[in-house]
Design goal:
- The protein has 325 residues and is mainly alpha-helical.
- It has one domain (2-324).
- It is built from 13 helices and no strands.
- It has helices at 2-34, 42-61, 69-93, 98-106, 108-120, 126-142, 154-180, 185-207, 219-245, 250-258, 260-270, 278-295, 297-324.
- The chain is globular, with a radius of gyration of 22 Å.
- The two termini are 38 Å apart.
Length: 325
């Protein structure tokens, strides 16, 4: 049993690490795709992404999937949150840079404790409020970075991405609630992705259909980018996240996923979409520090407290034995 648990824990770490890399790269790939082949229909990019991922998950887990009121309820609500989060993020990318988008999206991890407080009536510790202050400071510093392209209103993109981060935080809390209510991770993953895909198709048909005839889709440029985004950044990533949440602590999960932000920045700088500036370095460092402070420090403190409690119990037992003798 111990060996099996250790293997599941290790697998969860590996899966989440891969997810962080794919999501970090996704900021750059989505920016490239939305400014080229999907420039006239950006929502269609997300439609292709989620519908494609849903088909992959359907093929792999067809025998395990269930269609009933429970799966429709939890899947549809989670799908709506994913749709809103990604749509805001994608629109935000049109006004800001992938590095900014990466850091602002990472702030969803800071929001989760407050949403859990509302959902489970459990007040966050004081360290959470310190983390929020750090995150806000980091986000303000990030926004001080001036774009060379004067036509870009970076702050608009940052606010839109922040709205998307809020929806991602809601989706995480909702997913945790669904799992606690008995939803298995296969069905939760598939139905959320599938519902998000349907919503993106509807949105694109309603608001972007007039642009389809002038869309300039470059197959040679887009196919491998789409393959990474659909298969890796969506189908694999959401399955990996849901699976890992069953075997890792929230602190471990959050810390590993938070790595998507600096990874996205590094990739963005490497491909020339961002320059290394003090605002990106300092602001990004503060955001990541806030994430670590909120998610990791409390876990380490609780672990230390539990160890001390065990030591105290052992000492008390030994003293009692000595007195009896």
């Amino acid at each position: 049993m111990v060996t099996k648990i250790n293997k599941q824990h290790t697998l969860g770490i590996i899966l989440l690490s891969a997810t962080a890399i794919l999501w970090g790269a996704g900021f750059v790939l989505n920016s490239q795709l939305s400014s080229t082949s999907f420039v006239n229909a950006p929502a269609m990019l997300n439609a292709v992404r989620f519908v494609g991922a849903a088909l992959i998950l359907l093929i792999i887990f067809a025998r395990k999937l269930k269609f009933n009121k429970k799966t429709l309820l939890y899947g549809s609500i989670g799908g709506i949150m994913l749709f809103a989060g990604f749509q805001l993020q994608l629109v935000g990318l049109g006004y800001t840079t992938p590095a900014h988008c990466g850091f602002f999206t990472a702030s969803y991890i800071v929001f989760v404790p407050f949403m859990s407080w509302i959902a489970y009536k459990k007040r966050p510790k004081w360290i959470v409020f310190v983390g929020i202050a750090l995150a806000i400071t980091g986000l303000v510093i990030l926004n001080l970075n001036k774009e060379t392209d004067s036509s870009k209103s970076t702050w608009i993109g940052d606010l839109l991405t922040l709205g998307g981060a809020t929806m991602f935080a809601l989706q995480i809390v909702w997913g945790d609630y669904a799992l606690k209510k008995g939803m298995d991770y296969n069905n939760l993953t598939f139905w959320q992705v599938a519902f998000a895909g349907v919503l993106f198709i509807l949105y694109s048909l309603i608001f972007e259909s007039k642009n389809y005839d002038i869309a300039n889709f470059d197959v040679n440029y887009s196919w491998w980018r789409l393959l990474i985004v659909v298969f890796g950044g969506t189908a694999f990533a959401y399955y990996a996240q849901t699976y890992a949440q069953m075997h890792l602590t929230p602190s471990e999960t959050s810390l590993l996923l938070a790595c998507e932000s600096p990874i996205g920045m590094v990739i963005s700088v490497i491909v020339g979409l961002d320059d290394v500036t003090w605002t990106i370095f300092v602001g990004g460092t503060l955001v990541i520090a806030a994430v670590i402070l909120v998610e990791v420090v409390p876990a380490l403190t609780d672990k230390k407290r539990k160890i001390q409690e065990q030591v105290n119990v052992t000492e008390t037992t030994e003293n009692t034995t000595d007195d009896t003798q």
